[in-house]
Amino acid sequence: MARWPNRHPDPDGDPITDSGVADTKGEPSVTAADTGAATARDGATAVTGYTGPDPGTASPVHVSLTGDATASEGGLANTGYLAIDRFTLVQQAAPRTPATWPHQVGVLPPRAQSFQHRAEADQLRAAVDSGGTVVLTQVLTGTGGVGKTQLAADYARTAWDNGEVDVLVWISASSRSAITAGYAQAGVEILAANPSAPEQAARSFLAWLVPKADHKPCRWLVVLDDLSDPADMRDWWPPTSRHGRTLVTTRRREAALTGAGRRRVTVGLFTPCEAAAYFIAVLAAHDRHEPTDQINSLASDLGYLPLALAQAAAQIIDADLTCASYRELLADRIRKLVDLLPEPGALPDDQTATVAATWSLSIERANQLRPAGLARPMLQLASFLDSNGIPATVLTSEPALAHLTAHRTPSGARGAREPAQVTVEDTVLALRALHRLSLIDHTPATPHRAVHVHQLVQRATRDTLAPDQHDRLARTAADALIAVWPDIESDTALAQTLRVNAFSLARTAKDALHQPAPHKVLFRTGKSLGESGHATTARDHFQHLAITTRYHLGPNHSDTLAARHDLAYWRGEAGDAAGAAAAFLELLADQTRALDPDHPATLVTRHDLAYWRGVAGDAAGAVAAFAGLLPDQTRVLGPDHPVTLATQHSLAYWRGKAGDAPGAAAAFTELLADQTRVLGPDHPDTLITRHNLAYWRGAAGDAAAAAVAFAGLLPDRTRVLGPDHPATLSARHGLAYWRGAAGDAAGAVAAFAGLLPDRTRVLGPDHPATLSTRHGLADWRGETGDAAGAVAAFAGLLPDRTRVLGPDHPATLSTRHDLAYWQGMAGT
Question: Minimal CB count within 10 Å: which of 31, 312, 395, 805?
């Protein structure tokens, strides 16, 4: 029997001859009659041949039904001869016929169930850009799971169904070889190119896309889906042609993708309405109906990410859950995201990856970009902070740099050694690497919210961490927040962002911020809340902190007692002065027993107990308590200690409240000199003393001097604290009041009217300080002669103060009093 050699078709389609040794094993010749033509069709092989010592003298061997070998389209035909010791084979490829138009190459992804029309689809179909230039190449970019492929498929399907294209080519562009293969397939089908030479076929196809003067123009559309690396498109961009269009989908955002007349279309998340409509449609298709409020809430919980919505809906249907029960599972931070999604074999719409796995390859690619090895640890750190905006300074702080240095992923290059210390420049480049892969949005132009990370990207990233990694990163994020949190919050927008990030961290950190002791960021967050005017929220924050700290550390730990102290203080600031005094009295007994009577924390509690007794109505008792405290603080802490100076401040204040306004003014004058010497003229405590000195001068009868003092204080507070700081706004309030008291009622009205929108914007409409400004505006409106206007303003203010502060709060009672007064003045 003969052993046939391998057959190698020639790239150009010409016949070739291969020879091999024939092993006859001594068998006699075989002769067959009744030969004829051998024909190969649809990829089969036909053989004819003869035997002899050589082709010229051999005796023919006629094999049944042999003859000329002819291959039809797509097949190969073989003919040959067998010599005494060799067999020769000749192979001929069949001629190919170019496809007729219209023709589609590649398979479009199926339309997703309950596909939503989106604004990005209209943007894709716009023929010109904002400058009026005709758009021929568009790049759809966005993070994984936003629906780029579905939008591209919808665009291509619509163009095909409407007869707008003659040739449609859909290519998976996940690698350069895949792009080449896609173009080659198009060349084989459209041009009948040789499939055995893929690169030549690919380049022939691209060349064919260029319009020729003597050829019928072809309207074409090439879609390159899921481009993973812009470098893969080098030399493979379709040509610019007025007859053709190119559409690319990618997670990448490099500038290389948008040059040469290419327009980028950013695909974002679903809008709330789109998300709700999608959920309702998918559930209805399975005869499921859920309350609209639960659907809206679940869409928000999932961050309006289309892929997450699809997979969550599938899980709800398959597991027979409700939106409410699924939300409970989602809120359980112990559960991993992968456990809340369908198994890979049950994913909807022919999806191949769960939300949890969608970004893994992107993270790996980002981590390989320069500076290598930093993108992953940077994303891990950012995954503990606010998804809607992380200050740039937090991620470039010293704790962040130390984390990145310690956990830089090795580059993998043999012999490569990364720099020992990560720099701020390195962190910025790491953020840009994550931005380029659409894993984050990095907007340096908005430094307070420079980094946005989708909440599910954060969760999927945290899910990959071991428990010790999770806890260590949580405390590192807390260290980073504290490192950049200013003592004086002159930038109220930054302070707000830091608080929001601290809240997000507390939710994701679980118990990590309480072990081995409560992290200082927990206390700093509550203090910031109160200082920004949110006393009630600060009270609630410290109530929770006091409970958790007691649970973790016990009732007598210093941190537990500190949390109780802050809770009592902000309870008073929220309007419950008597409750604050009672809480401080109870705390004082526990601190005296657990710490020491002369412990600084015990002395501070004595101070605050005296203060809230005064606020609760016992001004004389407050004076006596402060007078007894001052020598103990001077003995223990020294006369120039800030806490000792604070007690002098409180003693002077309550002297005035007890009826000795001149004595208060004199005491504040003496204190101001000491604070300026010890703390400096711009220290917040020094500025507070100037504020109170101005007030008590006015209360002592010199309203003009008070107005002048407030006018001098205001620019200093604006410079040191910023124009929106609550203390700056308080100085404006004081200036307005004493301007009126000095005889300029109209000026007071104008000043209060200018202050009110700023306080409303910064503090909110229900903040006690905002309500106080409304009170002052109403009162001085009456003093200008507009009694009816005062009545209307007080009538509008009273229900708001009652709702916010309660009917028995002193400020509420004051509003009731003044309303009655101006009603009398107006004759109503």
Answer: 31
